[in-house]
Amino acid sequence: MARFRLVPDRSELWAEARSTLHPVRVHTTGLTGVIELEIRGNRFELVPPTHVEVETGRLRSGNALVDGELRRRLDSRKFPRIRGELTRSTAGDGAGSARLTGALSLHGVTRTLDVDVTLRQIDPHTLELEGARAIDMREFDLSPPSFLMFKMQPEVQVKVRLVAERDE
């Protein structure tokens, strides 16, 4: 089994939600965590205690009003982190692909989610894992922002790119 640690300044999260006025895009680096991995030929299996975390205060849209509302809705003081923990991994259709099942904790609520990911080895000591899926913010007790003519849709498209280096 191989153990890899995320490289925070190279690991990224993007989220995009639609609204009545314009798309709302959020981006951050600074993801932390560990990837435990078993490699069998060109197939891989992630195993617990694989986990990823990001501080909610790091999420930024580039718009101060949106960022303030985001921190308020996420209640960043009370719930300072978003955490994903792997519970199961199954091989995907092609080499380097897998379906991950895990527990996502956001805003004090934990839900089980599946996500399809691809993994590639950048060099003998570095991995890159990418995945994306839609999340309905209402499932995490978050109501979509709405004021005046602005209404945000509850579904958020989330994408992550994790870069991890082997623990020696």
Separation of the first and last Cα atoms: 12 Å
What's the number of extended β-strand segments? 11
Beta content:
over 45%
Question: Which range best describes the helical content: under 10%, 10-25%, 25-40%, 40-55%, 55-70% or over 70%?
Answer: under 10%
Count helical runs.
Answer: 1
Task: Please name the CATH architecture.
Answer: Beta Barrel
Low-pLDDT ranges: none
Descriptive overview:
- This protein has one domain: Lipocalin (Beta Barrel), CATH 2.40.128.
- It has 168 residues and is mostly beta strands.
- It is built from one helix and eleven strands.
- The two termini are 12 Å apart.
- The mean pLDDT is 91.
- The protein has an eight-stranded antiparallel barrel with strand order 1-4-5-6-7-8-9-11.
Summarize the structure.
The chain has 168 residues and is mostly beta strands.
Task: Chart the SSEs and their pairings.
Elements: E1 2-6, E2 12-19, E3 24-29, E4 32-40, E5 43-55, H1 64-74, E6 81-91, E7 97-106, E8 109-123, E9 126-136, E10 146-147, E11 150-166
Antiparallel strand pairs: 1-4, 1-11, 2-3, 2-11, 4-5, 5-6, 6-7, 7-8, 8-9, 9-11, 10-11
Describe the structure using short key phrases.
168 residues, elongated, single chain, Lipocalin, eight-stranded antiparallel barrel, 1 helix, mainly beta
